[in-house]
Design a protein that fits this description.
Layout: H1 4-13, H2 24-36, H3 47-67, H4 74-88, H5 97-107, H6 111-122, H7 126-131, H8 140-157
Helix pairs in contact: 3-8
C-alpha cells in the first residue's frame, strides 16, 4: 500500500488517465515498456566504484561544512586529531541498539504514504494494482548511480555538475 502514492505521482508525471480508469493500466504499461527498451551506456568504471566516489565526495563535503574550508589543511588536522582523541576516551557501546532501530525505522515509508495507499487500495483503483506489473527497467541502476554522483558533486563543488553551461554562467 505504501507503494501506491509514488505510482500516483508517476501517473501524473506521464500525463496518463487516472488510476481508476480501465485504460490506465495499459497506458502506463505502454509508456513504461518504452523506457524498458533503454539500456545504460557502457562505461569502463564499475557502478560500485562510482558509488564509492560519490560517498567519498559527500564525506569530504560534510567534513568541509563541519570544520570550514581549510578542514583538511595541516594546521586544522591537528585540532581535528585532538578532538577525535578526546572523543575516543569516552566509552560508547558499539553497536548502539537505538541507532540500529532508528536506521530500520528510517527505511520504512512515511505514514502519510501508507494511509494514502490504503485509501487508494480501497477505492475504485484497487483493481489497477492487481492488473499492472511494471516492466524491469534496465537503465534504473545506471540512473541511480548517476543521481548519487550528481548529488555528491553538487554538494562538493556547489555547482550544477552535469550542466553544460556550468563554467561560463551563460543563460
Amino acid at each position: 500500500m505504501a507503494g501506491l502514492p509514488p505510482l500516483l505521482k508517476l501517473n501524473e508525471a506521464l500525463n496518463l488517465p487516472p488510476l481508476g480508469d480501465p485504460e490506465s493500466a495499459s497506458a502506463m504499461s505502454s509508456q513504461l515498456s518504452g523506457f524498458a527498451g533503454l539500456s545504460p551506456p557502457s562505461i569502463q568504471i564499475p557502478f560500485e566504484m562510482i558509488l564509492k566516489l560519490a560517498m567519498v565526495l559527500e564525506s569530504l563535503a560534510t567534513i568541509q561544512e563541519a570544520f570550514g574550508d581549510d578542514a583538511l589543511s595541516p594546521s586544522r588536522m591537528g585540532s581535528i586529531s585532538a578532538m577525535l582523541s578526546l572523543w575516543a576516551r569516552f566509552n560508547i557501546p558499539i553497536p548502539m541498539p537505538a541507532l540500529a532501530l532508528n536506521a530500520k525505522l528510517q527505511a520504512l515509508p512515511p505514514m502519510e504514504d501508507i494511509k494514502l495507499g490504503e485509501r487508494i487500495a480501497g477505492s475504485s483503483g484497487a483493481g489497477f494494482g492487481a492488473s499492472f506489473s511494471p516492466p524491469k527497467l534496465a537503465i534504473m541502476p545506471f540512473l541511480n548511480v548517476m543521481i548519487a554522483l550528481h548529488a555528491a558533486l553538487k554538494l562538493a563543488i556547489d555547482l550544477e555538475p552535469f550542466d553544460q553551461c556550468g563554467s561560463c554562467n551563460c543563460a
